Amino acid sequence: MKYLLYILALSALVLSEACNLEREIDLELPEYDSQPVVECYLEPGKPFRLLLTRSYRFFDPFGLDSNFLERTLIQNALVTIAYNGRIDTLSNTPSAEFTPLKIFNYTGKNLVPSTPGIEYTLRIVMPDGKEILGKTVMLPKVPIDSIRVEWNPQRDTLARVLTYITDDRTRENFYRRTINYATLDSLPDQDFIATDRIAQTEVIAFGTGYELTEGDTVINTLYHITKDYYDFLESVQLAVFGNQNPFAQPARIKSNVSGSANPLGIFTCLVYDRDTTIIRK
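Given the sequence above, the corresponding structure tokens read:
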């Protein structure tokens, strides 16, 4: 009997500690230095444009007040992009694109050439003299061969789309595929990255679930991307997942920009094919 009483007393103690879910703990966070963040996507036929901002700590206040842009945008830097034996200087001039919404604080006067194989070199001299450097290359466009609508055999009011492309098996390729329903004005309804290592043949199919109905509009966009951009997007996704899970390890953003300014970000070309499908039986 005395052992039973002992076990019951011990169980009650453990249970009382386990149910105390409101205990306060103090976390000592390491010091964080704000870093410059570069986003530069070179789209064929569009002006050279770049967004240069500064990063925030996770718990920094992030109010969208009248001083937000002033606090976030880094101005008065010297931004140049070299290619084909010439150097273009981007002026500290704001610009925007509205479908989908993108903003930039450095804009060039010339248009980005579409010729595959052109190498681009980015150089940014910050107001304090520190540098940011990056390189990328214009890849060939991989066209969408066809888009097929398939109806669910168990529930014929729902459909999916299959998007087919032909992959160059002589080299390793990386893709980003997005789907928007109805409009490009908002974030994609589907957005994922893939390598051609997933495929056994040169024909690759990307699909959706059976979630579409007659009359729906599906906008397919297929990007042919560099490994740098693939790694960047993958690391951003992991960082987002890590922020949503308090027990996950923090993920490091894999940037392809470097230099004495200790930057984060991506410098790459956006080469894509896009097709719109209206779901019909």
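The longest strand covers residues 217-225. Try to locate this feature in the token string yourself.
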